[in-house]
Structures are given as structure tokens and as C-alpha cells.
From TrEMBL:
<dbReference type="InterPro" id="IPR003593">
    <property type="entry name" value="AAA+_ATPase"/>
</dbReference>
<dbReference type="Pfam" id="PF00005">
    <property type="entry name" value="ABC_tran"/>
</dbReference>
<dbReference type="GO" id="GO:0005524">
    <property type="term" value="F:ATP binding"/>
</dbReference>
<keyword id="KW-0406">Ion transport</keyword>
<keyword id="KW-1003">Cell membrane</keyword>
<dbReference type="GO" id="GO:0016887">
    <property type="term" value="F:ATP hydrolysis activity"/>
</dbReference>
<protein>
    <submittedName>
        <fullName>Iron(III) transport system ATP-binding protein</fullName>
    </submittedName>
</protein>
<keyword id="KW-0997">Cell inner membrane</keyword>
<keyword id="KW-0547">Nucleotide-binding</keyword>
<dbReference type="InterPro" id="IPR008995">
    <property type="entry name" value="Mo/tungstate-bd_C_term_dom"/>
</dbReference>
<dbReference type="GO" id="GO:0043190">
    <property type="term" value="C:ATP-binding cassette (ABC) transporter complex"/>
</dbReference>
<keyword id="KW-0472">Membrane</keyword>
<dbReference type="GO" id="GO:0015408">
    <property type="term" value="F:ABC-type ferric iron transporter activity"/>
</dbReference>
<keyword id="KW-0067">ATP-binding</keyword>
<dbReference type="GO" id="GO:0015697">
    <property type="term" value="P:quaternary ammonium group transport"/>
</dbReference>
<keyword id="KW-1278">Translocase</keyword>
<dbReference type="InterPro" id="IPR015853">
    <property type="entry name" value="ABC_transpr_FbpC"/>
</dbReference>
Amino acid sequence: MKRDLAGPGRGCYPALNPIKSLRQGQRVPTPPRLEVRNLIRRFDGRTVVDDVSLAIEPGQVTCLLGPSGCGKSTTLRMIAGVDMQDQGSIWVDGKLICDTVFRIPPERRAIGLMFQDFALFPHLSVAENVAFGLPKGATRDMRRVEELLDRVSLSGFGPKFPHELSGGEQQRVALARALAPRPRILLMDEPFSGLDERLRDGIRDDTLSLLKEEGTAVLLVTHEPHEAMRMADEIALMRSGRIVQRGAPYNIYNAPVDRAAAGFFSDINILRGEVQGALTRTAFGEFLAPGVPDGTEVEIVIRPQHIKIDFDRAGRGPNPTAEDGTPARATVERARFLGRESLVEFRMSFDNSILRATVPAVFLPRPGTVMWLMIRRDRCFVFPVTTPQAGDSVAR
């Protein structure tokens, strides 16, 4: 008789009872509301989603952020069930809903959808649009409809039709419709892109409050960093089909994984130098580059708001400091007031390159004015050299 060396769990060890294996008093871990494991999707031999994994808890808003064509919407479509993955699996509350063999149809996944075009039915009233996703019955629970319309500040709008509403009002109807059946998960694909810019922030905040109250797990797709920073508890930054960095908005902004990640959230300036003895020497002084081999060319990334500006003192600038390094001489090219801040472009004396700095409120020095710039060491990022990208300011 052959002996089954794999044991009852078909692995190296016998299967364990997860409750008995826990120490007394410990709780069984609760699975995420939505979990995506190693999703891959290919079209015509090209991989558009490449090994994407993420987990979202109830009441959490996770944002898939990235440029157009990076695979965000395709990932959303696979979770919704309107597209099939080539590899990987999707789980809801610890239960498999889809892999490459087993598949629960979209209408049975308890997943709500919101798209940028709202997709309201023009021949149905506002109340009928909101009630559309509810179980069919004599009244379709109109109390739920009235409650949601009140919570999105559209009380009394039930008899109206979509063409009688503004864009912001249509967006709120679409949100109420998506939440009416109490989905465990809500997928949102660029839902605010069709709104006037002046309306977006208020509607985003109202939407976020309602989603938190409902305890819905939300996966939001956007290409706008401002939207992701405003709404998300966690950001998953995508590029070329892969998630390149995940984290809370503060962490992902202040600790980017590479130069492209830093540049996606804001304008950046680039200094280049060569590492010698774990230091990179530039016109602004030395920058630490621990662990980088000697002779390696690196890029030092600094955002415009972290450049310090000082006045010229008869051809001299401020004294060097450990925090800000050595000042470098520059001449103002132009200055523009942008409302909340001023943007000043400088031509650097040491190599004729352009660096950009932003200053809160009004600061409009005349072109040709000589000033001195300093770079905060704690706000710099040092990365290996990559191909220059549009919008970078590069100084050596």
C-alpha cells in the first residue's frame, strides 16, 4: 500500500483547525471584505494587468491611481465580473467569487458600480433610478429610496427626471442608486471626472462621508493625485499594469518608491551627481547616498515647495547650514501668481539650468533679480538615474 506523504492537507503538514490552533482568548482573524490575489489579464499577447494583489476592509477607501492605460479600469472590470482574468483569484469576505475555473456572475456578487457617465435611465424618475437595484416588489422599499435621497441632499427630487438635474445632482443620484441595495463593495471608475471643477471637492467630501456611514468597502479608480489624496485611506499606485507602491496618502507622498512616483504627485526638480564615498557632490553641497556604489550617477529629487529662497547680499548669500546645505546663486526668469501660491522660475548660475520654486501667497520678484536657493536635506529623495521625463527640471 502506498503511503500518502503529503498528508490530509495535500501539503507537507496535516491541515490544522484554525480555531484550535489559536491561543486561548485569541480571535479568528476576519478576512478582508475584498481581496484580489495575483490578477493577470492579457489582450492580444500584451499583459495589461500584471500580478495585481490588494485587500480592502469594510469602510475602507482604496484608490487605484495611475496614468491612463495602466490597467486600473481593467482591474475594476475583473472584480465586477464583466471581464475574466487569465490568472489570479477574487475573494469577498473570505469566499472565492472568481478564479480561472469558478465564477459567480456579476449580479450575484453584491458589488455596486459607479461610472463617470452616471448611466442614469432617462425614462425613469429619480426615485425609480435609485430603486432600480432593489429587489423587485410592490413598493421596492421606497423608504430606503427616500432615506438615501435625503442623505445626498436631494429630498423631494424623487419625481424629477435626469434631464432636469445638474451634473452634480445626477452624480448624487448615481451614488444613491449604487448604495440602495447595500452592496458590501462599491467600485467607482472616475466618478467625478465629468463634474465642474468647482463642484468636485464638495461632492467628493459628501460622497466620502456617506460611504463611511454605510461601512462600504470602496475601490476608486482615478488618474488624479489630488482626488486620491483627498478620498483614499490607502493608495495603490499603478504603472504599466503593476502596483508599484501601496500605502497611506501621507506615506506614499513623502516616501516615493522612485522618481516617477514622486513626479506623479507633483512637479519636481532634478539634480544629478555622481556618488563618491556615499556622498553626492552638487552646487548645493553634499547629499547622502548610503549604500550606493561609488561612481553611480544618481538623481536628487526636490519638490518646488521645498526649495528655500533668500535675498542677495552684495553678491553673497546666506551661510551654509547642515539642514539646508550650501546656497546656490540664481536669477529670476519669471514669476506667476497662481492663487494660493506663487511659482518662480530661476536660471541657475552654475550651469544655466532652470529650477522652479513655489512660495505661499504673493511673491513676484522681477525677472533678472539675483537670489540664492537652498535645498532642504530632509525633503530630498535620491534615486538611480532614469531616462528624463517631460516636466522635469534637471540641474547638475
